[in-house]
Amino acid sequence: MIRFENVSVTYADAPAPAVAGIDLFVPEGELCLLVGPSGVGKSTLLGAVSGLVPHFTGGVLDGRVTVAGRDTRTHRPRELADVVGTVGQDPLAHFVTDTVEDELAYGMESLGVAPETMRRRVEETLDLLGLADLRDRPIATLSGGQQQRVAIGSVLTVHPQVLVLDEPTSALDPGAAEEVLAVLQRLVHDLGTTVLMAEHRLERVVQYADQVILLPSPGAAPVVGAPADVMAVSPVHPPVVGLARLAGWSPLPLSVRDARRRAGELRERLAGRTPAPVAPYATAPAPDAEPLVHCSRLTVRRGRTEALRGVDLSVRAGETVAVMGRNGAGKSTLLSTLVGLHPPASGTVTVAGTVPRDTRPAELLRRVGLVPQEPRDLLYADTVAAECAAADHDAAAPPGTCAALVGELLPGIAHGAHPRDLSEGQRLTLALAIVLTARPPVLLLDEPTRGLDYAAKSRLVGHLHGLAAAGHAILLATHDVELAAELAQRVLVLADGDVVSDGPAADVVLSSPAFAPQVAKILAPAPWLTPAQVRKALEAAS
Amino acid sequence: MTAPADPRPDAPRPDAARSTGSTGPGAPAPRGPHAAERAGAKAPHHGDRWRRWRAPVAGRANALHAGAWWVWALGLATAASRTSNPLLLALVVAVAGYVVAARRTEAPWARSYGAFLRLGGFVLVVRLVFAVVLGSPVPGTHVLVTLPEVPLPGWAQGVRIGGRVTAEGVVFALRDGMKLAALLVCVGAANALANPARLLKSLPGALYEAGVAVVVAMTFAPHLVADVARLRAARRLRGRPDRGVRALLQVGLPVLEGALERSVALAAAMDTRGYGRTAQVPAGVRRATSALTLGGLLGICAGTYALLSASGAGYGLPVLLAGLAAAVAGLRLGGRRSVRTRYRPDRWGPRAWLVAGSGVAVAALMIAAASYAPDALDPPAYPLTAPTLPLWPALSLLLGLLPAFVAPAPPATRPEPGAATAAEAGVEGATR
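ok -> structure tokens follow
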């Protein structure tokens, strides 16, 4: 269905090709997963299938890409629109119209499908994706998972033979991600659609794949094979694979279910051991110490909806708290309120001894720092060096403070680089360094692992452990259960503006299938959360 | 009225709008028969009939054609342009306002009505200020106040700043301003009642690409506003002041960058979805299309100008019609290039005829009234007289209220977006 013959792509002004020597074949009706660290050319490869590379992006494409027998060199994206459906990383950038139903019909209108057929397919697609109740809703009012489903639906209505998806679940909460994956499963099984998708969150998708294409490093030839074979050698792998490698299981299990059936022996070896805390308190927080963050009966309204209702929260120095909950539960609102972006409708907020709403920004900077969901928003300058100088100036810190932090967190970064040219992980770390320049005792991170590969994520975890040990109070809003398990001592779960649970991380995540990390699901009921814990225990045993 | 157990038999349920899918446009209330059956035991017969004829709940299937709203609003605007009687102008604004209040939805575009009202008020005030400061050509004897006059050089003869302010001048300016404001309110009403995107959807195929550009631009404005808000918040995070003009200016560049990036992403998405696929047409057809369209548009412009300018009413209509015909032919021909089809276009049903017809009737009756009651429609500013409300023109304006009764009514209770989202997302509370 999709065939790459000795393909390499070189963008203008790039010293080396973005991808080189790609030879691969994706047969019809397969769910094919494209994996690899950030910056190895996954998006380029996906773009080559839809024809956006090179027709839209520019650059030189050597070799030949054929999709359903059409050469992308001679067919522009619009001429491939009836065989390839493409959904990019940001569904909002994909929408042309303003209501769900019109959006589903848009592609068919462009292709000139007959009105009766259009109506029938829209109804079918509404049912297939569970969107029937939303058909008249403006797209802007939908949640992230709903938008992602509408985006997929809008390309499905033209009945493409190939579906190309770039990070379809990265921005979604676990529940919404399940919904989207269930839909993809259905397409592959029932309609025989060929799906090619790139995804960083392997723990969510790898068990559904028929074939995995691994791009190990930039410019390297891809490794193609069955998921279990590729995962055995892949530098990026989900926790279940990490655990399987530790335990030496072969063939490699990819799903929690397969791993659980093998895990009897491992559970016995681990019996009687208690896992070392994943995120130990560096210094036991004194119970009578003044909390750094304190909210009491906090209610925040956004428009007419109550985004937060009666939230009580206190966070002490050295504590890391993960705030979890579905898209739209109020996580971001909570963090924004702590930096004074939203006024509380009732209740009180104090952060490091001040009321954030009444504090001047220049002063607040030294009390609390927020790394927003889109770290790029924090960056204004043309170069990393200029950004650092501006940060020093904003924080009235001695010149060089921020540059030193960048050197520490991002060794080897070019100081003349444009922030826009950095990878997601580098940009996030740069934003973190800028926020830390003012030495705020309270650090807030909103969805920090969006678009991060496993390596970047584990570096981030390392930095945050260090900061917590140095006495920072850290609050992070995240959908990433694996991250929460590795990082947080406490987990706060929000639902619809209410706090529905607040307690030690292990207790909260183990009690809920939606928030339990893979290792916990495999080794339940024993409270193991990460492969690292298991490794330590096994090493201690031998 | 007669069914106390169910005081609002037509109260919409969330699914009522969708269940009308099979009902044609302009059909009587879909739930009417059932409501009548339930109330039938007690209600007198004429009550049933009345209920049957009530407007249905608006949904996608019976949505009124956007063009009908525009015809109605332009009819009112034409009527407003024909009179300077403040009472009649106020009546036009009241009619438009009542229909908007009765039939507008909760959609984002419907909120623009308030903006148009404020704009109308602003225009009125500006017109008054000009009349007071720059004087008025209307002769007057009732001096209200005498402002200090600015001496101007000889070459500026005929221009006056300050000086006498007469009641006649102020009244004249007030009426003039009211006329402009009423026109704006009519346009605002059309804007609030008809989804602009849907209006563009009913454009001929040849104009489709231009239409998409407009739709994309319209959805961009809210994105830009959101970007500005987000980046100002980000400034606060960097410890810089987030209020004031300077803060706004400094986020300008990043906002534009973001907008540019988004347009590129959207262009890519539209390209992969088949935007711009065209069919081959012979060169002769293309040239004929251009000639017809251009000539037609010129004719429409000239005709409209003549119609609105009172003096050229005689030749205005024929020119307008000829222009329209040429433009329609051109667009038809141009549509051959496009391979597009249309998904559920708004249909022009009986209710659309009624709505558009009421606007046309209002305009026609007011134009007719200009011949039988010219003084009542255009009372002289000098000498100063109290305006009277002429009976027949006022009654003919009230015809414009018809849409408030025949157009499908928007559902009264809408599901809160947040509530539906919460019910949808499906992650169970973690502690359960």
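The radius of gyration of chain A is 24 Å.
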